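ARCHIVE CARD
CATEGORY: sequence design from structure
SOURCE FIELD: tokenized fold
FIELD CONTENT:
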């Protein structure tokens, strides 16, 4: 038992708890849009966090623009959202990897320095950790790629509006003026990319944690077999 293994468990446990909370809130539809919140937050939820099909409830979103002192408004409601559905799948994978990695970190503490521990524990622990790092990078790339299609309010609505997915009140509405609005919402995808790479710093901490545990486990394995 070493301080490295103990600190590894603590670090992975904290991340697993966070992933459990985020996953629970997402999969249990706790991120449902609310009319009292900022519309940017509602857009974030509509884009990634709330799948109306999975949650079994639709939510309405008001789109309002002012053009030459004329106020135009319409109500939009998504009935399905492939982007949010895909995010739910990503969350499940993210949570599963965290739980497996946490369990292996505990086993690494108790059995990692036994004769068969390197192949039975250290290598699976390392492999799961590397998988976690790769998933982080892949998710980060996906969200960074989304920036170009989520840069404005109308871009987000178009992005989630596959055929038959988005409904709105059928009345005259100056959509062309909505497309000209310069309000930047690309920060939403950028924020999710930042979270996916664990704020960058934590990603590198995980990298060194995996590397140090592998080197430590390999050294212990060689020492056992030399003796």
């Amino acid at each position: 038992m070493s301080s490295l293994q103990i600190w590894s468990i603590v670090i992975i446990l904290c991340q697993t708890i966070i992933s459990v909370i985020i996953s629970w809130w997402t999969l249990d539809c706790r991120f449902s849009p609310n009319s009292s919140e900022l519309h940017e937050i509602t857009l974030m939820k509509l884009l990634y966090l709330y799948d109306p099909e999975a949650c079994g409830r639709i939510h309405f979103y008001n789109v309002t623009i002012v053009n030459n002192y004329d106020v135009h408004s319409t109500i939009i409601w998504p009935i399905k959202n492939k982007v949010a559905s895909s995010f739910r799948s990503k969350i499940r994978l993210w949570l599963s990897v965290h739980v497996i990695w946490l369990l292996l970190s505990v086993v690494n503490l108790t059995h990692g320095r036994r004769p068969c521990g390197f192949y039975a524990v250290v290598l699976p622990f390392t492999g799961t950790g590397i998988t976690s790092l790769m998933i982080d990078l892949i998710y980060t790339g996906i969200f960074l790629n989304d920036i170009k299609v989520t840069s404005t309010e109308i871009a987000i609505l178009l992005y989630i509006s596959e055929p038959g997915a988005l409904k709105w009140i059928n009345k005259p509405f100056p959509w062309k003026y909505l497309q000209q609005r310069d309000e930047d919402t690309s920060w939403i995808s950028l924020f999710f990319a930042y979270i996916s790479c664990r704020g960058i710093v934590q990603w590198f901490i995980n990298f060194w944690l995996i590397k140090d545990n592998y080197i430590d486990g390999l050294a212990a394995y060689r020492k056992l077999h030399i003796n």
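CARD ANNOTATION: Residues 3-226 form one domain. Strands lie at 61-67, 70-78, 166-168.
SHELF: design records, drawer C
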